[in-house]
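hiii so my PI (J.) wants the whole complex modelled not just the main chain, which honestly fair. so below is everything: two entries, each one labled with what it is. i double checked the lines twice but i was tired so who knows lol
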Amino acid sequence: MAYKPYSGFEPKWITKAAAPDSYRSIFRWGDPDFFKLPKESLYNMMKDRLNVKDEDFRDYAMDLGFDKVELGPEYAPKMAQEHVDFFKSVYGDDWSQGDYDRMSVMYGQTCYDLLRLREKKFDSLPDIVLYPSESEQIVKTVAYCAEHKIPLYVYGGGSSVTRGVEPVKGGVSLDMRRKFNKVLYFNEVDQTITVQAGLSGPDYEKHLNNAVEEFGAKRAYTCGHFPQSFEYSSVGGWVVTRGSGQNSTYYGCAKDLVVSQKYATPRGEIVTSHYPREATGPNLNEIMMGGEGTFGVLTEVTLRFYRYMPENRHRFSYMFKNWNDAMEAAREMMQRECGFSSVFRLSDEEETNMMLRLYNVDDTPLRPMLEKLGYRDMERCLFLGFTEGEKGYSWNVYYNILKIALKHGAIPLTGYVCKSWEHGRFNDPYLRDTIMDFGICVDTLECCVNWSNMEKVHREVRKVCHAHPNSVITTHMSHCYPQGANLYFIFLTPIHESDAFHEYLQDILDAIVRSGAALSHHHGIGKMFAPWLEGNIGETEYGIFKLLKEYFDPDYTMNPGGTIGLDLAEDEKRFTRDGYDGYRDGYNTPAWDAVIAYDEKDEFLETLK
Amino acid sequence: MAYKPYSGFEPKWITKAAAPDSYRSIFRWGDPDFFKLPKESLYNMMKDRLNVKDEDFRDYAMDLGFDKVELGPEYAPKMAQEHVDFFKSVYGDDWSQGDYDRMSVMYGQTCYDLLRLREKKFDSLPDIVLYPSESEQIVKTVAYCAEHKIPLYVYGGGSSVTRGVEPVKGGVSLDMRRKFNKVLYFNEVDQTITVQAGLSGPDYEKHLNNAVEEFGAKRAYTCGHFPQSFEYSSVGGWVVTRGSGQNSTYYGCAKDLVVSQKYATPRGEIVTSHYPREATGPNLNEIMMGGEGTFGVLTEVTLRFYRYMPENRHRFSYMFKNWNDAMEAAREMMQRECGFSSVFRLSDEEETNMMLRLYNVDDTPLRPMLEKLGYRDMERCLFLGFTEGEKGYSWNVYYNILKIALKHGAIPLTGYVCKSWEHGRFNDPYLRDTIMDFGICVDTLECCVNWSNMEKVHREVRKVCHAHPNSVITTHMSHCYPQGANLYFIFLTPIHESDAFHEYLQDILDAIVRSGAALSHHHGIGKMFAPWLEGNIGETEYGIFKLLKEYFDPDYTMNPGGTIGLDLAEDEKRFTRDGYDGYRDGYNTPAWDAVIAYDEKDEFLETLK
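here's the output for the full assembly
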C-alpha cells in the first residue's frame, strides 16, 4: 500500500533514519530505513477516540533519541577485573563493555521499555556483554557465574514484551544475535533440525526454504513459526518463553515444535530426549520450556519442520454480524475435525473497525455495502486466515470454513483483506514507533481462554480498559484449539511516562487473571507479569517451580530479579486467590454456565423439556 | 470367526469358567465365560517355531488355579489395629482384609505376574484394600498414610504390564474399580468431561456415546482412547502412565487428551490448570503425568473428547513387499500433511505371518495369489487401519494412504483384514491365557523410535530375541508421528517359571535401550522397567524426578518399592551410559546416517554429485 498524503493537517511523521550509535536506533524496531505511517482514517480514529487533536501532533511529545548513546561515569561497569579477564580468556575479542553495546541489551520491546529509553532511564545495564559462538563458551560462562555469583542474562532476539531479557541486577548479558546462530544438524528423514539458540527467525526459515541447495534435501521446508516479532526474534527465545507464531493453529506453538533441548545450567548440562512420545516419567522437555532462562541457558535446540507448499495455500476472509455469531462459528471450525487452518484470526467489533482503516477497506465501496447488508460498524467482526498442508487437506479445511461461516451468517470478502493483513503482518511495530513520537502508546496483552469462558474474559478485560479515559482496546482471537483460544488485546492510549504505563498495564492484567484466563498464552511471564503468576497457578503448584530453581540454580544467578517470580518478595506479588470467589471451582471458572455438574444433570435435563 | 476343530490332534483347551473365588479368576483376563482358542494354523506355527510337540499339549504345564484362594496365617495382614480403625472411620464398610480381595490387587498383567500367580508366589499382598467413592476419602487416606509412613498403592483397572500397581511393601491398596467411577462435570461447549480416576474405559466411552440422553448434549461423542487393555483399564491409569490407545495416531495419546488433573499428595492437593496452551512456566500437567502414583493419587481428571462419527470411517488394508518399503511408505504418510489415520498398524514380516494365521487369511485363495505376485511369506508386511474425523478429512486421509501405498508397491486387500483385526482387537489376552496353560508365554514390549533409527532398533531387538532358542518375536509399528513411531514387540516362548521369564525380558529391554529407543512409548515404567530409566534419561535429568518426589512425598509412602526407580539402590540399576559409545551424540543415536552435521555439509553435497 502506497502512502497517501492526508487531506487536512498532517503530523510531521519522522522518516529519517537514526544513526547507528543513537538511542533511537535501540528503541526503534528493526530496519532503520523502513517507516510505517498511519493512514488518514486511522489518524482520525485516534483523534476521535483518544482525545488528541491536530494540535497534539504539531510537536513531539517524547524524546526522539537521535542523540548518541553516552553514559556518564555513574554508569561505568562495576565488574571486578579478574572476572573480565576470565571472560576475555573464553571469548577472545567477542565481548564488550561499551556504552552502546550494554545499552542495546538493556530492555526488550514493551512500551514500558521504550518509554524508559525515551526518558533516558537506565535501570538495568549489564557490566559486560559477551558474544558466544559455541555452546562450550556458554557452559564455561554459566559455571563461572554460578561459582562467583555473577548475575547472568540472555539477550536472544530482544523482542521480549515481559522484561524477560532485562539484566536488572547487572552482571553478564549473553548477546546471542551476533555469532550464536549456526545450524548444527539437519535430518531430513525425521524432518528435524538442530540449531544454536541465537539463530534469528528469518535466517532459520531461509535455511529450511533453501534445504535443497544447502543440505542436498529432496525438497524445501518451512519452520511454521511466524510470530509478529518474527524478524527480530530468535529460535531460542521462542522455546524458552513457550512462544507461538501466527500460523500456530495448524503448525502448533513452540512447545509443539520442540523435539529436544540442551541447556547449560549451574548443575551441569541438561539434554532432553528426542522421541515423539514417551511414557518415561514426567516430561523433561515440558519442564525446561518456560524456564525463561532461570534454570540455565538454552544452547541448542532440535525442532521439527514442515514441507514448504505455498502452492496449496487458500486465503479467506469473512465478515460476521457480531462477536457472538463469530465466536460460535470459530468454535465449530475448531471442533468439526476437518483439519485446522494455519492463520486463524477473528477480530472483535472494535478491532474490525481499526483493521478496515488500516487495510484500506474503509475507503472502498465495501463499507457502504456492508452497512446496507446489516454488517454494522462496531458490531461486525472480521475473520481472516489461510489454510496450508497437502492439497486435499488444505482444500478441505478451506471448504469447511466456508460452509461454517455462511451458516453463521458471514459474508465472504475474498482473499483481498487477508493479503492486506499479510502485507503488514510483520511491520506493525514500525507504526507503533511512529505514533509514539507523539506520546501515543500501543501495546498488547494476551491470554488463553476456554470457549465457555471466552465471552466473560472478553467483556471484563474491555470493561477495565474502557474505564480508563481515552483508551482504545481491540481484541482478536487467534491460536485456536478445540477447547479454547488465545485472546489478544491491543490497546492504544496517550501515555507519556513509563510509570503511568506500568499502572495501566497492571489494571488490565488484574482483569485477565480475575476473569479466569491463563496469564499468558505465548508471551511468557518474564519480570513484568511475574507478580501474578503464583496466584494464577496456585501456591503448592507454584512451589514446584521454586523447587526446580533450587535444583538447577541454588544461588539464583540465572536471570535473577523476579523472572517467573522465583525471587519475588511476598509483598511484590499482586494476585492471590484469597477472596476470589469460586476460582477454578470444579476445575473451571465460575462463569462456566456450560458446565453441568453430573449430580445436577436430572434437574438440568428437566429444564430442556 | 467361528472356531473350527483341528484336522489332527487337538489340545484340551480349557473352556470352563473359573469360580469367582479362585486363583484363576484373578490371573485370567476379563470375562470368565469368554474363551479364545488358537486356530490350527497358529497352533502349527507354535509347534514349528517353539520346539513344542503335540506331546506337550497332552497335559497342562502350569497350575490351572481352579482352587479357591486361601492364604495361610503367614500371610495375615500386619497392619496395626489403630490404622484399620482409622480407615474404617473414613470408608464405612468399603474396605477389606480378606484373602481374595487382597490377592486380587496384588499383581497386574505381565506374564511375570501371571506366572507368579500360577506358581502361588504371593510377593506383594497389601494389608488392607480400600474402596473409595469420593476424592475426599483419598485426600484423608494420603494424609494419614504420609503421617504414619504406611505404603499406599493404587489399583486402577489392573492391566499394568510394568508391575506399576504391585504393593511390594504391603500397606494400603486403593481399589478404584468398585466405586470411584463417577462423571463429575460434562462441558459440551469446551468438549471436556471431568471424571473420577477409577472410571473404566468402556463405562467412560458409554457415557460419551450416550451424551444426548445422559447430558442433553447435541450429539454423541467418543473418548478416542482404546488401548488393547481397554475393557479392563481405567481412565486414571491411562493418565498416570502416559498410555496410548490403538487409535492414537489421530486422537493422540493420554497426554494429548488430558486437560486438567487433580491429585491428592502428602504435600496437599495439586490442581493443574485447564487451558489448551499456556506460557506460564514449566507445564504442570506434563510434570504430574508419568508420576505413576509416586507423587500422590490422581483423583479427578478432565479430558477432551471428540465427536462420534463412525459413519465417516474408512477401513483399509495393504500388503507391502517388505519392511523397508513399508517403513518408507509409513513415513511418507506421516509427513505428507494430509491428516492422520486413526488406527495405523504396520506389521513386520514375522507378525504378518502370524496375523494371516490368526485372521483366517491363511486358508483363503489370497495366500497363493500373494505368493504369485511376489509378496512372499516372511518378507511381506501387512498394513491396516482406518480413518476418522469429518467426512472430507477422513476421505482425504484414506485417499492419500491409498496413493502412497500403491506408489510403494503395496497391493490393496480390501477392508476385510482390518475388520478381522477389529473383531479380535480387545480379546487377544484371552488367547494368551489359553496357551499359557501349556507353558507358552506371550508378552509384549514397546518403545518409541525416530524414523532414522527405526531399522536399527527393529534389527537389534529381533536379533537378541532370536538368539534365545524357541522364540517368536513379531513387531508392528503403531502410534505414528511425523518424527517417528512406536515399535511394538510381541514375543512367544515356552517358559514355565517367573524368574526365567524375568531374565528373558531383561535381555530384550537391554536391546531396546542400547539400540537408542525410548524405554517406553506408552506402557510406562512401573517397577519392572525402573532399573533402566536413569540410564535412559541421564543422571542430572533423572535428578529432577527425585527432586519432585522429595517435594510431594518426602517419606516415600506413595507407590514405594522402585516405581519409576525413585527408591532403587544403585546396584539395582541395570543400564548406565558408561561405555556406551555415542549415546545421543548430537541429540541423536549413533546410527543416524540421515543426520548431516552442518559443518560437514559441503563434503556431503560433494558426494551427491
